Structures are given as structure tokens and as C-alpha cells.
Amino acid sequence: MSLGPAEVAKIAHLARLAIREQDVPAYARNLSAILELVEQMNAVDTSGIIPLANPLDMAQRLRADDVIEADQRAHFQAIAPRVEAGLYLVPKVIE
Amino acid sequence: MMEWETVIGLEIHAQLATKSKIFSGASTAYGAEPNTQACTIDLGMPGVLPVLNREAVRMAAVFGLAIGAEIARRSVFARKNYFYPDLPKGYQISQYELPIVQKGQLTIDLDEGVSKVIGITRAHLEEDAGKSLHEDFQGLSGIDLNRAGTPLLEIVSEPDLRSAKEAVAYMKKLHQMVVYLGICDGNMQEGSFRCDANVSVRRKGDPKLGTRAEIKNLNSFRFVERAIEFEIERQIDLIEAGGKVVQETRLYDPDKGETRSMRGKEEANDYRYFPDPDLLPLVLDEEFIATTRASLPELPDTKKQRFISQYGLSSYDAGVLTTSRALSDYYEATVAALGGEPKLCANWVMGDLSAFLNKENREITASPVSPVQLAGLLRRIQDQTISGKIAKDVFEALWAGEGETDAIIEKRGLKQITDNSAIEKVIDDVIAANPEQLAQYRAGKDKLFAFFVGQVMKASKGKANPQQVNDLLAEKLKG
């Protein structure tokens, strides 16, 4: 399976990555190569094998339901571009 | 005229009532100052690791067991990728292919005596996003991430619902269930229980489902009903006019009472789910499931049936009294304290007590009249110390904290008059004072009987035993 310029543009948009027009063919080639590798792996018979969700053969550790975090808002907001009334300000997302 | 059938499935998000977030130790308490309950994990800072909250897992399992579902012995968390400012990580941790709860069901009650089983496809654990505030901050949006990371249980129904009414009945039943189980506070104003509806229509008898629209932003039972009704009309009109329903997300506008397309806005339903490498598979053993099962309270439907058989209540009364655990506990404590008379107790709990609670907007757990106090009052009706009517006044005094029933009766002189000679004396006075009415009554104007009863009760300040008044009056009026 190989990807065309339109698919590269879509993937870049979903990942919010700005890519240069002249780099599109190279991205298309490299991404297609990854998919080819996946296709090779697809040829292996995996029936009866439980899909691997994590390479560590362990189960999720659980934590107790306790509030242990203190308010550090001032600390976190010191690096935010804009704040007001305790809110992070971002470009408007609704028209 | 073409006949149409509506097909509805609901996705309900219930915030789980944990103290801390699903993957961090920040508080989930509602109403805090913006961003004071958002820690590095909730903010998606680099290098942090989510650790799953045991209580959120337990609550999801409690729900699954209560709806007769399968609890997955192994479930997996996945990343749902999308960009929005109230989702700092750029992905929401959710469950995709292997959710914790699968294949349950809920029975909803429709019109008198009719019930219907609604399938629940799945319920999975995920984290809530933050909140975007679109009031004007100089043309910018404000982001509060206190809600980010609050545990959610997303409960997905089968497309088994056939009308807006059924959808509302299902939503109410589910709401009752999660509150009853103590896994969600159910506060819809605060967004603890939210609903998206998938709605489609098809020609009656058509086995194929029509194209569906997903309606978002349904945060009250009334909105769900109105939005679905509007959407059904819209789709039918569209098809009958030769158009086609497109699969899309629509937003309900409560002010205009209509749904409108969210097209134009970002609507790339390409979430590119993949297993979250920061989280290991969630494995639940048989012991955990057995312990959780053993901890389940008696469920509302079972309790309702027991109230009908054990207390001889009507289906309606039993239904009302089992809407919440606190209400049914109060009722049973009253019956136990009185040692019987379950119908009398039901009438008072559902009547005067509920009316006073409503009037003052109080929860039953904050009732100033305890079950033992209410039973004390009902005992005095039972042994005819006071009439049911006088009891209402005593109840009001109990509510106001004027002391215990017997003291109130004593202080206010409310003891019922059951002495025949005393009642006869009042009757004689009343008859003597109303010769004209007496003559009319004896001439055949039967309905004047009520007039005499009223006069006697008034003269006795409501204290005469009503049954004795009736009997004695009938005797005396005959002449």
C-alpha cells in the first residue's frame, strides 16, 4: 500500500504538523515504506496469539483514591502565554 | 401516509464519584477556583505517568454487575487522538476494543404495567476533558482544566429505543441506578450525568437502519425529549421531501428548541485509537469480582418487588419509595419503628413528608423528622389519640422542632375526643343551634349530613373522632 500527497496532507493535518510542499514526496515514500513493513508482518500467522497491548508482561497497578496533589496553579501558569481570572487563554475555538 | 419507525441509541457519560481523578491524585470536587485542581498529569506535562484509580475501577465493576453485564477480566486503555484546547495531551485516555463492561441490560417501565428490556452494549472507563469558556476574553477562549481527568463511565445502549419517551425513561432509569449504587452524584446541572443521542428513522418494516445523526449537549431529561422529537420530525420531513439524512454531529439549542449541524467545525472522526503505552492492561481476578458482587446493595427492581410482596404496596407506591436508597431506608425504618401499618407509613412518607422536603428543597437524609419520630406520630393515629387530620398539624410542629409527638399533643390539647357522651353533648348543641337545617334534613335533604359533621368537627376543634361523630350523628338526626 502506498500513500499519495492527499493522504500525507490529511495525516499532517490530523497531527497538526506544518509540512513544506517540497517535502511531501519524501514523506509519502517513507510512510509508505512503514506500511510495507506492516504488510510483511501481516503475512505472519497470528491466529491464537493475544494482541500485545504492552511489551511488559504485567498488569496495571492501581492507586488508592486519595487526593495527594496540592494547588500549583501559579507555578504552572507562570509559563502560560496568557491567563486571566485563573483561566488559560487560547485562540477562540467557536465562531 | 408513510409509517415511520424511530431508532434511538444513547451514550451516557456518568462522572464517577471518586475523590481523586482517574489517573492522578488531584481532587475532583466541583466548583473550585479554575485550574486549582489540575496537576501535571492532568495538564499533560512531559514525562508524567498516569496511574489508575482503584475506586474508579470498582465503581465501573459495580455498575456492570448491577446491569447483569460481563466484567472483562482483561481490559485495555487506548488513546483517542484529537486536538482541542481543553484536552492538553492531544488525546483522551479511553477504552476502545476491550472495555471493562460488556453486554448488560436495563428494564424500563413504560405505561402502567408495560416494561421493556434495553440492551447495554458496553460501558467503558475514560477521562473527562476540561472546560472551555467562550465568554469574551478579548476575543479569546478561557480554559479551566479542573475537570480534566475526572473519571467517566461512558454507557452505550443498543439502538433499542423507539421513541423520545422511551429514551427519557431509559435515561431516568439509568440515572436512578447510578445514584442508587452511589457511583455518581447524578447532578445534571453540574454535568455529572450527560447524554448524547443517536437518532435515525426508517420506514416501518425496513430491516435496515437509516442514517443516524448524533445529537450532543443534552443535559436535562426535558432537553433529551425535545431534541429527539425535533430531530425525528426533521429527518422525516427531509426524506419525504426527497432529501437524504447525512451522518453528522448536531448540537441541541435549548433556546430555539432545535438541533443544528456542527459542520464547518472540526469534524474529522478519525481518532486513530491505539493502546496507551503508559498504561498496562487492567486485569481483574475472580476474587475482586466476587467481593464486588457481594458488596452490591439490593437493587431498585428487586426492592420494588419485595415492597409489593412484603408490605402489600401498590406497584406505584413501591416504585416511588424505591427511587432512592435513602428514601427506601427511611420508609423501612418507619415501618420497623411502628411495627406494622406499611400502607399508612407509605402514605405519610410519600405525602406530608415528601411535600415538606420539596417545599424546603431538602434531601430526605436532612429531614428534621426522623423515622422514629414519624412512627411515634403514626402510633397516635393508630391508637386513635389523634385523627389523621390533626396529625398533619402535629407533623408540622414536629418538623418545626417543637418537641416529640406526645408532648405536642399534650401542650396543644389535641387529644382526640373518643368519649361518646362528650361527643353526644357537642352534637346536641349543634343540632339545637341549627333547627332549620334539621328540619330540611328530616324532610329528605340528605346532603345536609355533611353540614352537621362539619359543624360538630368545628365545635370540637377537629378533635372529635370522625367515625364516632358519623355514627352518633346519624343516630341523633333520625330523631
TrEMBL record, chain A:
GO terms for molecular function: asparaginyl-tRNA synthase (glutamine-hydrolyzing) activity; ATP binding; glutaminyl-tRNA synthase (glutamine-hydrolyzing) activity; transferase activity. Its EC number is 6.3.5.-. GO terms for biological process: glutaminyl-tRNAGln biosynthesis via transamidation; regulation of translational fidelity; translation. SUPFAM superfamilies: Glu-tRNAGln amidotransferase C subunit (SSF141000). It holds the Pfam family GatC. It comes from the Bacteria. Keywords: ATP-binding, Ligase, Nucleotide-binding, Protein biosynthesis. InterPro entries: Asp/Glu-ADT_sf_sub_c, GatC. It catalyses: L-glutamyl-tRNA(Gln) + L-glutamine + ATP + H2O = L-glutaminyl-tRNA(Gln) + L-glutamate + ADP + phosphate + H(+); L-aspartyl-tRNA(Asn) + L-glutamine + ATP + H2O = L-asparaginyl-tRNA(Asn) + L-glutamate + ADP + phosphate + 2 H(+). HAMAP family: GatC. Belongs to the GatC family. Heterotrimer of A, B and C subunits. PANTHER family: GLUTAMYL-TRNA(GLN) AMIDOTRANSFERASE SUBUNIT C, MITOCHONDRIAL. This is Aspartyl/glutamyl-tRNA(Asn/Gln) amidotransferase subunit C. It comes from Candidatus Competibacter denitrificans Run_A_D11. The lineage of its organism: Bacteria, Pseudomonadati, Pseudomonadota, Gammaproteobacteria, Candidatus Competibacteraceae. The gene is gatC.
TrEMBL record, chain B:
Keywords: ATP-binding, Ligase, Nucleotide-binding, Protein biosynthesis. PROSITE patterns: GATB. GO terms for biological process: glutaminyl-tRNAGln biosynthesis via transamidation; translation. One of its GO terms (molecular function) is glutaminyl-tRNA synthase (glutamine-hydrolyzing) activity. It comes from the Bacteria. It catalyses: L-glutamyl-tRNA(Gln) + L-glutamine + ATP + H2O = L-glutaminyl-tRNA(Gln) + L-glutamate + ADP + phosphate + H(+); L-aspartyl-tRNA(Asn) + L-glutamine + ATP + H2O = L-asparaginyl-tRNA(Asn) + L-glutamate + ADP + phosphate + 2 H(+). Residues 329-477 form the Asn/Gln amidotransferase domain. Its EC number is 6.3.5.-. Heterotrimer of A, B and C subunits. Belongs to the GatB/GatE family. GatB subfamily. Allows the formation of correctly charged Asn-tRNA(Asn) or Gln-tRNA(Gln) through the transamidation of misacylated Asp-tRNA(Asn) or Glu-tRNA(Gln) in organisms which lack either or both of asparaginyl-tRNA or glutaminyl-tRNA synthetases. The reaction takes place in the presence of glutamine and ATP through an activated phospho-Asp-tRNA(Asn) or phospho-Glu-tRNA(Gln). This is Aspartyl/glutamyl-tRNA(Asn/Gln) amidotransferase subunit B. The lineage of its organism: Bacteria, Pseudomonadati, Pseudomonadota, Gammaproteobacteria, Candidatus Competibacteraceae.
